[in-house]
């Protein structure tokens, strides 16, 4: 019997992190021929993860350009993938989540009548502009997909509401937990001099990430002002903020936070040190999606700096609190979490709703069940 040809496709650092365990599980199966394709929608940040997980792409479309627009990403991925699909004719492509690479790869596969598997399927906010463009990217990918790997039961129910057939959906857990548990080490030593010098045992180190499009402008200013006042009001708090490269983020961060003692603005951090920084931090404030899934596995409370989240399971489980972007709410909730040890311990002890680190294996088994 001919081997099943499966083509994982991804283009950004978050996708690469979450697809790395899937690539490994596929390659470990002797009945599957795995053809890894990257678009390099992000270049340097993607390459860091490829090196960390020892992934060598079979195809690298290398599409990234400076100041690229969504339209430019779409047109380049669509055209370059067409040639790859015509040559390889995979039995199934695998895409992840909600990036432009994810949606456009699915569209290109549909044009070639190639089956599509969607990892991390079924996340929804119900607002097509929040997050933008991710909400529509994942929704449209779901419309095109043949197999749906939902990370949670809530995601599965979202797909059923959209009339996706139940036999095309399986709940796997989130592959980011697979990647995280492989990466975090209790004895990890930072190469970064600033991080290696932080007193994680005696200081309350807050890890901050903030970069989403919908938070640019006034929301970002509100976030940074709340962080500034938290630090100024408590000598025991320090903040580490890996600043996003977007000038609309960097300029505001430098204006409001650069001169504040105990706020450390650092360059973006590779995944391995970042995962271990999460593990060592006291708590996390973020507008990221993936961190809402990762941090609870490490027992770290999370304040979500967004008005809407496509990950309500974490809110329901009590591992994260959604605080939005209003200065007063952010400051008050963070201050309460820092000063109220019982509240902190209650959040830290909650079970992570996103899985047990075995999602990639379940994905491969479902592919075999449906396609062989």
UniProtKB/TrEMBL annotation:
It comes from the Bacteria. SUPFAM superfamilies: UDP-Glycosyltransferase/glycogen phosphorylase. GO terms for molecular function: UDP-N-acetylglucosamine 2-epimerase activity. Its EC number is 5.1.3.14. Residues 24-368 form the UDP-N-acetylglucosamine 2-epimerase domain. It is an enzyme of class 5 (isomerase). Keywords: Isomerase. Gene3D superfamilies: Glycogen Phosphorylase B. Transmembrane segments: none annotated. Belongs to the UDP-N-acetylglucosamine 2-epimerase family. This is UDP-N-acetylglucosamine 2-epimerase (non-hydrolyzing).
């Amino acid at each position: 019997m001919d081997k099943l040809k499966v083509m994982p496709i991804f283009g950004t650092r978050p996708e690469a992190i979450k697809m790395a365990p899937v690539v490994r599980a596929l390659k470990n199966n002797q009945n599957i021929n795995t053809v890894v394709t990257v678009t390099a929608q992000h270049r340097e940040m993607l390459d860091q993860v490829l090196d960390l997980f020892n992934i060598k792409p079979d195809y690298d479309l290398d599409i990234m350009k400076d100041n690229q627009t969504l339209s430019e990403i779409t047109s380049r991925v669509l055209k370059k993938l067409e040639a790859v699909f015509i040559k390889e004719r995979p039995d199934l492509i695998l895409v992840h989540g909600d990036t432009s690479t994810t949606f456009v790869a699915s569209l290109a596969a549909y044009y070639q009548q190639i089956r599509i598997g969607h990892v991390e399927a079924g996340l929804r906010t119900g607002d097509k502009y929040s997050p933008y463009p991710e909400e529509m990217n994942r929704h449209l990918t779901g419309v095109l997909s043949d197999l749906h790997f939902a990370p949670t039961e809530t995601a599965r129910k979202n797909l059923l509401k959209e009339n996706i057939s139940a036999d095309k959906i399986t709940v796997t857990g989130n592959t980011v937990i697979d990647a995280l548990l492989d990466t975090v080490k209790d004895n990890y030593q930072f190469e970064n001099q600033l991080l290696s010098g932080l007193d994680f045992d005696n200081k309350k180190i807050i890890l901050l990430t903030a970069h989403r499009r919908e938070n640019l402008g006034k929301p970002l200013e509100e976030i940074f002002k709340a962080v500034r006042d938290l630090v100024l009001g408590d000598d025991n708090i320090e903040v580490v903020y890996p600043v996003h490269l977007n000038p609309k983020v960097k300029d505001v961060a430098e204006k409001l936070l650069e001169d504040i003692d105990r706020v450390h603005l650092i360059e973006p951090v590779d995944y391995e040190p970042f995962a271990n920084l999460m593990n060592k931090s006291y708590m996390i404030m973020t507008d990221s999606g993936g961190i809402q899934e990762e941090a609870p596995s490490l027992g770290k409370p999370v304040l979500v700096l967004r008005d809407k989240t496509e990950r309500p399971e974490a809110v329901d489980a009590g591992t994260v609190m959604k605080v939005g972007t209003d200065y007063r709410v952010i400051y008050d909730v963070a201050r309460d979490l820092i000063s109220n040890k019982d509240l902190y311990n209650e959040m830290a002890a909650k079970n992570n709703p996103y899985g047990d680190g075995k999602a990639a294996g379940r994905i491969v088994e479902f592919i075999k069940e449906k396609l062989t």
